[in-house]
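Methods — Computational structure assignment.
A single polypeptide chain was analysed. Its primary sequence is given first, followed by the predicted tertiary structure written as structure tokens.
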Amino acid sequence: MEAVHITSPLDRKTIKGLTAGTLVLISGTMYTARDAAHKRLVQALRNKEELPFTLKGQTIYYTGPSPARPGRAIGSAGPTTSGRMDIYTPRLLSAGVRAMIGKGGRSTEVREAMQKYKAIYFIATGGAGALLAQSIKKAAVVAYEDLGPEAVRMLTVDNFPAIVANDIYGNDIFEQGKAKYRREKS
């Protein structure tokens, strides 16, 4: 299967064309954020405070990168387990986030919110943070610097590899895999 080249921030037309299992190469801009940053973003939304960056159409990559070696934009930047962000995700989707990248499955509540708000979830290969970092061309802290590796960074990426895990139609690559296994086993 050949990968689909897409650009972040994602537009609705691109999102509509992606289905669970599709391999993608993402170029453009995305933001890093893990649970501590998610908590602050949701609190800011609750308090009607100005956010440090716009959420509309954005892709959030769940990673806490290691320090960059000289000459590199970023250190190892592997995906974090996405379930840790599930309590915050529906609110961020309602505020305009359109894509997330992490590892592992999502809760029923998050999958339903993705359908409602027309957002997508990508998975990246865990344990391949050094390889994934090669697709990151620029990285700059844009919020919550006190969080260290978990600060929000704006990334410029070129051909960042990922797989659509959940699409806007309710398809789930993890459920598809289980069903295929059960069919093959019987």
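Note: The CA atoms of residues 124 and 176 lie 17 Å apart.
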